[in-house]
Amino acid sequence: MEEWKTYKLSEIGTVVGGATPSTKVPDNYDGQIPWITPKDLSNHSGRYISKGERNITEQGFDSCSCQMLPKDSVLFSSRAPIGYVAIASAPLCTNQGFKSIIPNENLVDSRFLYYLLKYNKERIAEMGSGTTFMEVSGSVMKNIEVLIPPLSSQKSIAGVLSSIDDKIELNYRINHNLAA
């Protein structure tokens, strides 16, 4: 069996914060750019997300420090609350309530990283600070150490966990359709 190694999150991917265009400028919203907030994940039951309740415009995107996250980026809410996790199923951006990770595909599988962050969310939340609400800063997130196996083992582990989640998500959709 190959050895698991300890890495900082910044060593296995790029940690990216989000941003919010001014809400006082209506032309910043109702555009074509998917924009995710922690609220969007509060009722989200699946692993993947492609859009939130609101989109932003090019003007809104350009007006702040938003960054487009590529497909397979792992979103992690870093405040209000800490610990919602999802995988981007399409390019999107987030508000400042996230510290997302664009995985280095040579070191980490995005699905494995998703499960790793879900497993460690309480530990990460304990690293938060703040007076009004707890938040995990970008520097804290970048320096969080995680233990990961070689990429082939990650894919195997993520495959097993994903097959279980596929069944759970299918049951959820069936139940949701029966209730409708």
Keywords:
3-stranded mixed sheet; 10 strands; 7 helices; 180 residues; alpha/beta
Could you explain how this protein is built, in words?
With 180 residues, the chain is of the alpha/beta class. It is 36% helix and 25% strand. The protein has 7 helices and 10 strands. It has helices at 9-12, 38-42, 58-62, 110-119, 121-125, 138-143, 151-179; strands at 5-8, 13-17, 29-36, 48-49, 54-56, 74-78, 82-88, 93-94, 99-103, 145-148. The strands form 4 sheets. The protein has a 3-stranded mixed beta sheet with strand order 5-3-8. Strand 6 (74-78) and strand 7 form a beta hairpin. The longest helix has 29 residues, at 151-179. The model has no long low-confidence stretch (mean pLDDT 95).
Structural class: alpha/beta
Question: In angstroms, what separates the terminal alpha carbons?
Answer: 48 Å
Could you give a short account of the major beta sheet? Answer: 3 strands, mixed
Mean pLDDT value: 95
Number of strands: 10
Give the DSSP E fraction (strand runs of 2 or more residues). Answer: 25-35%
Shape: globular
Q: What's the alpha carbon Rg, rounded to whole Å?
A: 17 Å
What oligomeric assembly is this protein in?
single chain
Percentage of residues assigned to helices:
25-40%
What is the fold's blueprint, element by element?
Blueprint: E1 5-8, H1 9-12, E2 13-17, E3 29-36, H2 38-42, E4 48-49, E5 54-56, H3 58-62, E6 74-78, E7 82-88, E8 93-94, E9 99-103, H4 110-119, H5 121-125, H6 138-143, E10 145-148, H7 151-179
Parallel strand pairs: 3-8, 4-7
Antiparallel strand pairs: 1-10, 2-9, 3-5, 6-7
